Model the fold of this input.
Amino acid sequence: MTRCASENRYPATGLEWSHSGPIRCELESERLVIRNYTLDDVEPLFEAINESREGHLLPWMTWCQDNHHTVESTTKYVCEQMLAVAQPMTFTNVGTGIFCKDTGRFLGGSGVHDVRPDSASCETGYWIRRDAIGNGYAREACARTISWALEEQSHGGLGLQRVRIYCALENAHSKQLIEKLSIRQEVHQRRDYVVDGVGVCDRLGWGVLKDEWDCKNHCVIPHA
Ligand SMILES: CC(C)(COP(=O)(O)OP(=O)(O)OC[C@H]1O[C@@H](n2cnc3c(N)ncnc32)[C@H](O)[C@@H]1OP(=O)(O)O)[C@@H](O)C(=O)NCCC(=O)NCCS
Done:
């Protein structure tokens, strides 16, 4: 996302991030558990996506347009995630589930995507099932996921140096969530990409560096 076409044309020496074991995500925050998917999550995930697809996940979550219309499709997704996290050498993205800590109810999805070993960076994203929005769960999950991405591997994190978040200008709820995290907006690409049913949208991008983020309190370090 937002790469320049001439990027990566020549081999370059970068940060050469790597991860030595399976990518285990077992996070807790005040009200949430955020963790890797297991086969037990197939049914709640399928149900949440199908309750939320029209007019909520769409138009923004394009992956659910053609996928998750059957339990088999959701099973395939969960199996792919389980395989991806078991192979850290080829790890580029992992979807994680967001659950209510008190009840165990499946609330939505988050994860890290487009992991780039050369710059030790990743993107993060999130969605919350329709009947659970407006509770601050997405913001809590996003902040906790940023801490996981930037935390040292010796403390259970991914040990990355930078996290990126993107959304369309037209996606007001997502934009508001990111703004409330107070991370730095870096990108505003006007009329940059097409979202089905919305038209040509502006792409907004935010970035946070390891030394700008408090991984204990899951927030920006003031004046970092
Ligand atoms: C974008 C999306 C995740 C936002 O969900 P959300 O629940 O509105 O987001 P937040 O977690 O930031 O919650 C914010 C709201 O919860 C309220 N809230 C209630 N309790 C809260 C608490 N304890 N902490 C924080 N906020 C709380 C806030 O006041 C705010 O309400 P407001 O919008 O009326 O001001 C959701 O709309 C969604 O899933 N959209 C579809 C998928 C999508 O677009 N994903 C992003 C792609 S870039």
